[in-house]
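Duplicate of #3305? Posting structure anyway:
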């Protein structure tokens, strides 16, 4: 599996990540959502460099010319709820892409013991398409894997791009073991060293869904 870690080189990603992590900036949910969206836009641009292109005849006011255009079908998939603004960033750039949505959540059996459940799936057929599966926080990797398994009921994609803003090292290792290594690329803004007893990434940034949309019961 190929891993692209944006933290390996300073860029605008570093700026946006610092704002999303900062408790003094997190009080502004509009800015938090916009930074998630920006992260999606940046990753979409980088992913676009890996796709296949074909020449298309275009008529300008002065002459005809050939322009390279994407020659693959892209499906953008996201996990509710923090994934929504992140997804929008990808959609801003891949504006002709199809879209898929998965509802995955933690159902706690005890204080620190939970199962990940899938309750909702809406997706087009995925056969031979490029799947971009986006979720801002990759803590254990369990939600990402179960979402991917659910999406496979809609067909087998040609390539999978897993995209996250922050991942734990444990989740990166888990994705490497559970996704097909020959056709998976992981894109991540930063890889943090650990998860705590509640399966939150440390240092991480907290609960991305709550920061984007408010706390839940």
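Output from current build:
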């Amino acid at each position: 599996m190929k891993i692209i870690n944006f933290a390996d080189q300073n860029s605008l990603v570093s700026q946006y990540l610092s704002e999303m992590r900062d408790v003094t900036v997190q009080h502004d949910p509009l800015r938090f959502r916009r930074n998630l969206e920006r992260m999606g836009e940046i990753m979409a641009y980088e992913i676009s460099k890996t796709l296949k292109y074909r020449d298309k005849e275009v008529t300008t006011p002065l002459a005809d010319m050939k322009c390279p255009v994407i020659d693959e079908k892209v499906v953008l998939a996201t996990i509710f709820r923090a994934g929504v603004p992140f997804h929008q960033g990808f959609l801003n750039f891949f504006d002709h892409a199809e879209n898929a949505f998965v509802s995955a959540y933690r159902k706690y059996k005890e204080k620190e013991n939970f199962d990940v459940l899938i309750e909702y799936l809406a997706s087009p057929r995925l056969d031979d398409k490029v799947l971009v599966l986006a979720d801002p926080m990759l803590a254990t990797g369990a939600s990402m894997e179960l979402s991917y398994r659910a999406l496979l009921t809609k067909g087998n994609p040609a390539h999978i791009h897993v995209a996250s803003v922050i991942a734990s090292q444990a989740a990166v290792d888990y994705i490497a073991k559970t996704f097909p290594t020959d056709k998976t690329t992981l894109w991540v803004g930063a890889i943090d060293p650990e998860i705590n007893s509640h399966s939150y990434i440390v240092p991480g940034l907290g609960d991305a869904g709550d920061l984007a949309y408010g706390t839940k019961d």
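Confirmed duplicate; merging threads. Residues 29-48 form the longest helix (20 residues). The helical segments are 12-21, 29-48, 83-93, 142-151, 169-178, 208-213.
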